[in-house]
Amino acid sequence: MQTKSTTGVQNDLAHFLGVAVKSVEKEFSYLLAFGRRTPAVVKAVAQTVAVTPAPAAVVAPAVLPVSRIEPVVSLPVVEKKKPEPALEKALPVRQAGLKNVAFANKTEEVEVEIYFRDIQSPSRAVRIQALRQIKKLSRPTAVAMLEELLSREQDTLQIIELLNALASVSEDGATTKEVFKNFIGHQDTGIRLAALRAISKYHDDEGFNILASALKDRDHEVRRQVLNCLCWSFSERCSLHAVAALHDPDPGVRKAAAQITGALKVAQAISGLITLLADTDHDVQSTAAVSLKKITGEDFGFKARSSKTDKDDAIEAWRFWWRENQTKFKLQLNRG
Known about the structure:
0% strand; mainly alpha; 3 domains; Leucine-rich Repeat Variant
């Protein structure tokens, strides 16, 4: 078997090394785009390989694949910010107009700081809990705090909640009544009702006149509830207003008026109640029949669910009785 000369082996090795250098150069050129290597480094490596003397009769080793070197890309370091605490729309108490409040003690001042934020929470459960706690504070602190919140609040539901809470702690404070009066003309029905209900608790002439005026409110629910407030707060004093409400265009108001006049046994309501026996609403008819029996002690068998003929007969009996007895009732009223 023939063998290659030493010179032949050296030439083959030189050829192999040349191929290897080119492969290395190719791989290193990949790194140039990332700024990790320079052409000078590649040349230095090539020169080192080229000048290395090869030993005689060296068998060319198997060519190993050059592993691809992935560039290490440095990412910008982002500083992790500390999470900011949830910000409520409430201001610190001392910046919210309560700095002149004479707190009962230091503990109460700290509690107010907490409740002041909680009461403005978007969660109704949180607000209700805060309102319960506020009611436990000293009365001057609770009133001042609620009045301040009302002066800045814009949300309808929260205004109603605040009005109701203030009504429960204010009792008959004259200054607080002025706060409620600011809301009796509000465009929202719920807010008007909350303010009027609060005013009804004062049991004074001004409150009575405000409620009586509200019986002309454009909303039938306001008229109905105000009529009930008059009855609860002023009893017989509301009698004539209840008689007038028997002719209200809303059946709910007419029914409430019929109930009130019957409960108070208002004789002046007899004629109006007899008229309501022919009302278009069956509930109004039934309530009128019950109230007539309470006031007069009479019963002509009127049933709202009876046939039209039976109801007409009962209504006629009531009218005949009234023609015969109205003079007697008027005399009793004059004596009273």
